[in-house]
Amino acid sequence: MQEVIRGLFRGAKRGVMTSKKGRNFYKGNRTGSMGSHTKHGNYVIDLNKVRTFVVPDLSNCELKAYVSHRSDKFKVDPCTAKDFAAGKV
Questions:
Q1: For the chain: N or C, fewer Cβ within 10 A?
Q2: Backbone torsion region of residue 10, taken as left when φ is above 0, otherwise alpha when ψ lies between -120 and 50, otherwise beta
């Protein structure tokens, strides 16, 4: 009986199980798989498992992005391919 009680106390000291504690423990990061492995070692993506986000049409939305009224007004010239290649960006 005393050994059972000692075992309970020993188990109560353990903290949260992490991947650094214990062998062969992989917690994962809850992302899920997007495909499957083939027998040749390749990975095939299943498009039904890929996450897609549905964004509503905001073309005629009256809401604007929040910008502080205290910010300074400035104008930025558009960047062209020549400016980017010359390193001016």
A1: N
A2: alpha
Write the CA distances from 47 to 42, 66, 76, integer angstroms.
Answer: 16, 36, 40
Q: What are phi and psi of 45, to 5 degrees?
A: -85, 130
In sequence order, what DSSP letters do the residues of 22-66 get, joined into one string?
Answer: STT-----S---SEEE-TTS-EEE-TTTS--------TT------
Show the tokens assigned to 34: 């997007």
Pair of tokens at residue 21: 């504690």
Q: Could you read off the pLDDT of 52-89 as tens digits, one per residue? A: 889 888 888 888 778 788 888 878 888 888 888 887 76
Q: Does pTM top 0.85 for this prediction?
A: no
Contact by Cβ (8 Å): 33, 41: no
